[in-house]
Fold:
Amino acid sequence: MPEHPEEHIGDRLKTVRKRRGLNQRELSRASGVSLSLISKLEQGQVERTRAETAHKLARALRVPTSHLLKGDAPAADADTDAQWAAVRDALNTPPDDLTEEPTTAGVAAALDDAEEPFGEVHLADLAAMLPPLLRDADALDGADRQTRAVKVRALQLAGWLLTQTHQYPAASDALSRALSAATDRLDATATVNTMCWLALRQGKFNESRELATRWADDIEPRWSRATPDELSGWGWMLLRVSGAAVRDNRPDEARHALRLARSAAVAIGREDVAGVDRLRTFGPATVTQHMVEHATIGRRPDKVLTLAATLPVTSLTASNQGRHQLNVADAHARLREHGDAVRVLRDLSRTRPEWLAQQRYARDIVDRVVGRRRTLTPEMREVADAVRLPL
Structure:
């Protein structure tokens, strides 16, 4: 949180720009951000901007991106907030008196049933399944390892989904409770992985990087006897370090962490599902997908498409597949290959419509595509509706 609550990105931008001896026009030329947007940010007419824009400005000003953003992330829209209200209530409200006491085995089976809609990112189904599942998990009686593991797994799933749908305070609460109840280091690391992603989505790059670095140092395995699960947990912490660092204008640190993550993936040799759920999938394909992400942030669309051609996409989790496809669409859009960008987005709208509708990144891509056209094709209008691009 900023030291002065009233301060926003425009105030911070203006202060740094003046310290660097630049006027607004010079900053616009150096960053590639329009003079109009810089002016509106500094005047407070626009109070938030995309992480990509903040990254461009920060790179031109030679400061970490987090210095400008400091967690300026918008929350869920009203429709999403209403759809997930029952999930938030289930997290915040003690379970009612139940006519039939839940069992650890029964809740574990319900979590297994949730794996399929999770794997396909069917958010509406999960929003309906989670409230009773969370209440049953909360009502479980017992402190044995198996019962605690089931409770942690339910909270991890809720925290991931709430992060995915931009409900950050509720996600933070679920993940904090999961971390407190963790039965071992692998469970705890899986929770911290999502906590780092949550901080990343909020623009808290420094917080995400420091948390991931601390955990990577604490859990670094002994290579001579490391298990795939241990390498996976360590590898994910390194991916979180690199992801936060590359967004925060720390390229050397990002490359170093990504190199170490790749070594862990090579040691595993395949995409490995550590523990009990798909949230922990890690291996060479996951690392390559993050290399694509780095190339996207570095505005290297040519490299994005070259790397994408080597990536076995079906090895990734559904959400990572979707993110990867957005990076490919972004690369095509930057190369002004608008037809290819729209083709990728149409494919996503058919296979993962609910997930796509939650992606502000997708709206940014479509906005750039349609903004460059005098008239829109039927396919462009279709994807504009699919990503909920405002009229």
